[in-house]
């Protein structure tokens, strides 16, 4: 796992999607490290992380990363998940809202209108035409490293996970983010997911595809900071209320 930034600063956890690794988060992690502590793990079986005996479920990944935050003394962390990683951070927020300041779901899956391996594969192929060559190169090399067997073993867990149900029970600010030309996470699906969240908002990164945070990390890093500020204001209000000073 990579760790960047000031260890005493507010923590941001970046969770990658299926088949890839933490490498495509490098531009966003670098941007956030200026004023945050940034944790960027490789999920089990991906990137440089060892491959377990069996593929973990989304809920198991959520428990694993919550334990990681606890061991690292992260406090209330902001969670950024991309694609399948969006499912993981939604599950984390549902399970332990006290440990989560807010979540950004970038290109979240799985759109119910495409809940099958062929449909997801077709959408991903179409999306590749909207990604810069450098991003496609990172993703392709990670896919080769992962291999079809492990990818195929993890995929059913991704397809089976009910992202909407997790988001509906995530009592934290939820920012749904999609690239303007994202062919995996449609605008209609992202809007429906946003409407499901108790505290939801939808934003788009202009001119980008599914991997928006790698193509243009500027807007996403700015929105992380805004979410942190919102969480800080909420914490101050709660503190004043406990002390009897709220108005």
TrEMBL record:
Highest taxon of the lineage: Bacteria
Positions with biased composition (Basic and acidic residues): 227-239
GO molecular function, one term: hydrolase activity
Region (Disordered) residue spans: 227-247
Record keywords, A-Z: Hydrolase
Domain AB hydrolase-1 residues, every copy: 12-220
Alphabetical list of InterPro entries matching this protein: AB_hydrolase_1 (IPR000073), AB_hydrolase_fold (IPR029058), AB_hydrolase_sf (IPR050266)
Name of the protein described by the UniProt record: Alpha/beta hydrolase
Lineage: Bacteria, Bacillati, Actinomycetota, Actinomycetes, Micrococcales
